[in-house]
Amino acid sequence: MPFRTRSAYAFLAPYLLVFATFWVWPIINSFLISFQNTRINPWKYSFQANWGRLFYDPAFYNALYNTLIILVIQVPVMIALATVMAVMLNSPLLKARPLFRFAFFAPVVVGEVAYAAVFRLMFSLDFGVINKMISAIGFSPISWFDNANAAMAVIILAVTWRWAGYNAIIILAGLQAIPDDVYEAATLDRVSKVQQFFHITLPLLKPIILFCVVLSVIGTMQLFTEPFLITNRGGPGGGTETLGLFLYRQGFTALNFGYASAIAYTMAALAVAISLLNLWVGRDPK
């Protein structure tokens, strides 16, 4: 092996060692643990204890249902809102554009615990500002956290508020990569702004939007902080428990590490499958 090649591997060795120790081995070990019954001592191989239980566990299907509800409702709404925000931020008519870009991106910088606490206070039945506004217009206050649908709506609003601006900045970068000549030619052909948006902007932004959708799908499948803190660990009665929260409950509350590992790999497989489906649906026809 040439000296320069040996030198390169020598410099890479510390990183590769850390990567193998803290990434590769835990992933492999977690997969092996998913086939063991960790509720007995010593642990023993048992496919039925974890993977067999997974297919018949109503609590798992409840968490899966809640996660898919958030995925189906929140992700399309957030991506649509982010696209509109990006178009507005890209408008030459908008003054102080850097300030608005920072304002829309700022929620991502806020700590998850802090913003979750703020949302829980905002929707409080007794002193929340949302119920104060509802009462001011003559309606009865809503007990947001005692109703599963209302609590789910709060989580969807919170996640959308946090990540819409982040996706808008990504889409904005894609907008700025579109040549101005395309719009100038369309304007000369008397194509309206609305038609330009649907027939020029959106088709050219499709790869960027698909990228944002895939990121959002992966993030939603791992959703944990919002149901844990805003709705008090997936309440009421598990009505907002997501797969991420269900995994946490099995692994760190019930200490059932084998079942938690099976749930983790199921989450990863679902995220990959849904992401690939999005890429397939959004592919360019040949």
Automatic annotation (TrEMBL):
<feature type="transmembrane region" description="Helical">
    <location>
        <begin position="150"/>
        <end position="175"/>
    </location>
</feature>
<feature type="transmembrane region" description="Helical">
    <location>
        <begin position="257"/>
        <end position="281"/>
    </location>
</feature>
<protein>
    <submittedName>
        <fullName>Sugar ABC transporter permease</fullName>
    </submittedName>
</protein>
<feature type="transmembrane region" description="Helical">
    <location>
        <begin position="196"/>
        <end position="218"/>
    </location>
</feature>
<feature type="transmembrane region" description="Helical">
    <location>
        <begin position="63"/>
        <end position="87"/>
    </location>
</feature>
<dbReference type="Pfam" id="PF00528">
    <property type="entry name" value="BPD_transp_1"/>
</dbReference>
<dbReference type="InterPro" id="IPR035906">
    <property type="entry name" value="MetI-like_sf"/>
</dbReference>
<feature type="transmembrane region" description="Helical">
    <location>
        <begin position="12"/>
        <end position="35"/>
    </location>
</feature>
<keyword id="KW-0472">Membrane</keyword>
<keyword id="KW-0812">Transmembrane</keyword>
<feature type="domain" description="ABC transmembrane type-1">
    <location>
        <begin position="64"/>
        <end position="278"/>
    </location>
</feature>
<comment type="similarity">
    <text>Belongs to the binding-protein-dependent transport system permease family.</text>
</comment>
<dbReference type="InterPro" id="IPR051393">
    <property type="entry name" value="ABC_transporter_permease"/>
</dbReference>
<feature type="transmembrane region" description="Helical">
    <location>
        <begin position="99"/>
        <end position="123"/>
    </location>
</feature>
<keyword id="KW-0813">Transport</keyword>
<keyword id="KW-1133">Transmembrane helix</keyword>
<dbReference type="InterPro" id="IPR000515">
    <property type="entry name" value="MetI-like"/>
</dbReference>
<keyword id="KW-1003">Cell membrane</keyword>
